[in-house]
């Protein structure tokens, strides 16, 4: 998974050859099914990635409205939520593949059942799965993770509707690391 070290699609020129080495049987011989590239939503670069390599795509969504997303993800000023979803719908996927939508959950910001319903609607028509990520607290920020029961309730909303939805195991709490930091 290419995630957490900056936006991989900002450097597509170097990313594609690096992944070619990972995929090549004379290189690391990874299966394309085992490689995922995560993006905050560089829509034009998503299409370029799809044209270059048959790897998995993960999109950090983290919000269900344009206003929410703009508040926590500056990329939204350049590529709107609608542009991102349209890009995801256009992303070519072979049978059985899905786009993973990463959703960092913040208490009182994007963790209501109304958010769950909006997220489900936003993903309509996209071969998608959702990965819920409870925010890792940071003593220098006012953001908090939702209670575990809320995360589970959010997950259950998707599962009851037949959509694959997982909860990421929280790691890095001891050093204020990982998602949202």
Question: What do you see in this structure?
Answer:
By secondary structure, the chain is an alpha/beta fold. The chain is built from six helices and five strands. The chain has helices at residues 12-23, 43-52, 66-72, 81-90, 113-122, 148-160, and strands spanning 36-39, 56-60, 99-105, 128-134, 165-167. Strands 1-2-3-4-5 form a five-stranded parallel sheet, with helices on one face. Helix 2 packs parallel to helix 4 and helix 5 runs parallel beside helix 6 (148-160). The longest helix is centred in the last third of the chain and has 13 residues, at 148-160. It is globular and about 50 Å long. The model has no long low-confidence stretch (mean pLDDT 91).
